[in-house]
């Protein structure tokens, strides 16, 4: 007998038929002799509808009241799913986040889970119930209702799995698992049987549609075994765990990419201590995330440096930099948008020299110039122009031996919460 | 400075405009120097929509899960109302039933409030907030979410008013107050300025559209001053309290009526001790409410008796009676449907002899026969055929001097919860 956490997203329970299919799958898992805890998101468009309603009354509502509003979405889901399980002849009990003992920090809209008190869950399991917990929500020590922000339901599932020491946390989605790259770009993308937490985090941009990075971090930290699998079939899915089984000859597990990248360069900066801290401190204070940073050598006491960030933040970032010109004198800024970042990811890279060289070679053979490079132990990223992205991804996928004979069909990514 | 509880029903907050109007009224009350606690029901059709959704998945869902589902309706209302108040520049905080400290018995769908712990409400008031509490809901000592059943939001308002020792509990509705009779029947019906709890309870059938009887009972028991008033204007409304000011010369305060009454007679019952207890015990065990009971004299050891009940229960009641024929032998049953009960209600009746005689006289002058009579200290009820009901009500309204010069316009009764 295993203790299993099963997590279903909003699109999995978005209609009567889908709700019934999910209920049957849960009952089947229970009847196979397992103890089952289910985490579920708000159904289909519920959250968007609630947000629309609120905007009509207050375009900028207090976060506390928004949490009061939005948590009803998951409460509706859990109640209806429990009723459906009862209708199919099995036994279930639904809990809100606070009833399930999920305690969060005193922050609204993006609280972090600080504790889980699973007594009620264990009692309900002992009474023979499937336990259904509302994802995305919790309660502060003071009894305020909070939400966990994006990826919240995945995080709820992983945190619950850690708290009750579950054997596995299954994340159900509309694809078969985690792929070597986006199957919409590379038709012969390979479904990965297993992958490490770190690789999964690096593949986050591919994985965002199937697993939220925050949940992966939580799983890594608490050593929770994750399985990403389809809610439409019984295929095995992808296992995410600490020590992924290295597949024979596979050094690179996947190709990730990030669209809408911009580069900003600050030229002729006076090279005094603390310059970088001032620039990136100012950007961080304005909520602007910076990705790759490259500094060139210093010439005549002046330095050039460049960094990448999301295209949508580029204009604001330049304003911020101009705003600190008094503190950080420089000659000029230049910027370039319509870039992408493509990355090869693999836990085997660290022990295989020459992996990055294969990447540079494959890209240059396409006549594409590499604008920036960044490497870590398990990945190598290149910033290139957006236009040849698909060709580059396909070339890399082939170069690292990831192509399969089969072609995969995958629909659009589901909404995540 | 007064401490005021204001209760708004679902139709009062059923649209963006209505929500804004309610918010303005609340802010105005607060800015007049009062401390304000608001109780609100689910918006418009929310509850019905949730019930419809659940029926598709389980036609007979567990009451516990239904409570989980339906309580989201009020949680949505309180969050949106709070946001609206913030948008209008004032300060508010919303609470679910459990956050407001409303503790109920461990019964689903129709729990009774067992305790209210108002610490959070007082703290929030002290911080300058309007406090908005979800009606119709509470939590058991074990942390299960419960609902209070029909009239639940009125009951929440009255119970909160009692717990925080409010100066008044204002129930907002779409009519100006409690009327001497249904203005749809008698155009010159009189709005009552004040009325006692007992009279209000007897007028329940008129009052059901403006105030739930259970809330009146709770108010009486806890001596909470109620005001029933319009959410559309600033008129004074009707005050319901222990000692209503008797209006000059008014002995009868109002004319109530109850449609869809049936009479069942059991003829030739053996007159042995405990017969009545057996019959009405069996009916009660089957959830059938009986109203007026009349027993004729005993002839040759056999008795006849008759009782009234809701028309919709008549067939089932006869089945129940036939089912206990072995224990309670009788000759036959007869029944009559399409009857009504009309009642005069007034705290002054007890000290004014001849009040009932005026009623019988007025009815007989219309050529209508009285089938059954029942009296108490503050009312006299007659069961008559349904067809002449409106004429009888108008005649009684005139006979007791209740007619006013003005004509009242009143829309249909609002949905109550």
From TrEMBL, chains A, B:
Residues recorded as binding ATP, renumbered to this chain, are 7-10, 173-174, 179, 184
Any single GO molecular-function term of the entry would be:
aspartate kinase activity
Listed PROSITE patterns:
ACT (PS51671), ASPARTOKINASE (PS00324)
The organism's place on the tree of life at top rank? Bacteria
Question: What name is this protein filed under?
Answer: Aspartokinase
Cross-referenced InterPro entries: AceGlu_kinase-like_sf (IPR036393), ACT-like_dom_sf (IPR045865), ACT_Aspartokinase (IPR054352), ACT_dom (IPR002912), AKii-LysC-BS (IPR041740), Asp/Glu/Uridylate_kinase (IPR001048), Asp_kin_monofn (IPR005260), Asp_kinase (IPR001341)
> What NCBIfam families does the record tag this protein with?
asp_kin_monofn, asp_kinases, PRK06635.1-2, PRK06635.1-4
Top enzyme class, one word, equals transferase
What does the protein in this record do?
A: Catalyzes the phosphorylation of the beta-carboxyl group of aspartic acid with ATP to yield 4-phospho-L-aspartate, which is involved in the branched biosynthetic pathway leading to the biosynthesis of amino acids threonine, isoleucine and methionine.
Ligand binding (substrate): 47, 74
The family this protein is said to belong to? Belongs to the aspartokinase family.
State the EC number(s).
2.7.2.4
Biological process (GO), any one: homoserine biosynthetic process
Q: Which reactions fall under this protein's catalytic activity? A: L-aspartate + ATP = 4-phospho-L-aspartate + ADP
Keyword vocabulary terms for this entry: Amino-acid biosynthesis, ATP-binding, Diaminopimelate biosynthesis, Kinase, Lysine biosynthesis, Nucleotide-binding, Repeat, Transferase
Assembly mode? Tetramer consisting of 2 isoforms Alpha (catalytic and regulation) and of a homodimer of 2 isoforms Beta (regulation).
Name the source organism. Answer: Paenibacillus cellulosilyticus
Name the pathway.
Answer: Amino-acid biosynthesis; L-lysine biosynthesis via DAP pathway; (S)-tetrahydrodipicolinate from L-aspartate: step 1/4; Amino-acid biosynthesis; L-threonine biosynthesis; L-threonine from L-aspartate: step 1/5; Amino-acid biosynthesis; L-methionine biosynthesis via de novo pathway; L-homoserine from L-aspartate: step 1/3
List, alphabetically, the GO terms of the cellular component aspect.
cytosol
The ACT domain covers which part of the protein? 264-347
């Amino acid at each position: 007998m295993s203790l299993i956490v099963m997590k279903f997203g909003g699109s999995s329970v978005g209609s009567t038929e889908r709700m019934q299919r999910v209920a049957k799958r849960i009952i089947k898992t229970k009847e196979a002799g397992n103890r089952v805890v289910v985490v579920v998101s708000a159904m289909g468009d519920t959250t968007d509808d609630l947000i629309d309603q609120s905007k009509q009354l207050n375009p900028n509502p207090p976060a506390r009241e928004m949490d009061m509003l939005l948590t009803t979405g998951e409460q509706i889901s859990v109640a209806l799913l429990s009723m459906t399980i009862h209708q199919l002849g099995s036994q279930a009990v639904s809990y809100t986040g606070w009833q399930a003992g999920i305690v969060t920090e005193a922050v609204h809209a993006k609280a972090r889970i600080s504790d889980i008190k699973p007594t009620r869950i264990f009692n309900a399991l002992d009474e023979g119930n499937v336990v259904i917990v509302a994802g995305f929500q919790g309660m502060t020590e003071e009894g305020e209702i909070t939400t966990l922000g994006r990826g919240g339901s995945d995080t709820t599932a992983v945190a619950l799995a850690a708290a009750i020491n579950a054997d596995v946390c299954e994340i159900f989605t509309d694809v078969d698992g985690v792929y070597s790259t986006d199957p919409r770009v590379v038709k012969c993308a390979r479904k990965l049987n297993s992958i490490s937490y770190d690789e999964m985090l690096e593949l986050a941009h591919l994985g965002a549609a199937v697993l939220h990075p925050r949940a992966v971090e939580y799983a890594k930290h608490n050593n929770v075994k994750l399985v990403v699998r389809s809610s439409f079939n019984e295929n095995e899915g992808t296992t995410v765990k600490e020590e992924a089984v290295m597949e024979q000859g596979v050094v690179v597990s996947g190709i990730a990419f990030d669209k809408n990248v911009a580069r900003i360069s600050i030229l002729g900066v006076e090279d005094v201590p603390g310059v970088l801290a001032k620039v990136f401190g100012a950007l961080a204070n304005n909520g602007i995330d910076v990705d790759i940073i490259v500094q060139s050598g210093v010439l005549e006491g002046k330095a050039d440096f460049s960094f990448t960030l999301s295209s949508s933040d580029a204009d604001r970032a330049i304003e911020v930099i101009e705003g600190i010109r008094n503190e950080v004198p420089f000659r000029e800024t230049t910027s370039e948008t319509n870039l992408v970042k493509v990355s090869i990811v693999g836990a085997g890279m660290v022990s295989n020299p020459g992996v990055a060289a294969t990447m540079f070679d494959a890209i240059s053979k396409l006549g594409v110039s590499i604008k920036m490079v960044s490497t870590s132990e398990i990945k190598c990223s290149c910033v290139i122009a957006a236009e040849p992205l698909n060709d580059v991804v396909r070339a890399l996928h082939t170069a690292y031996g990831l192509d399969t004979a089969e072609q995969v069909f995958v629909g659009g990514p589901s909404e995540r919460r």
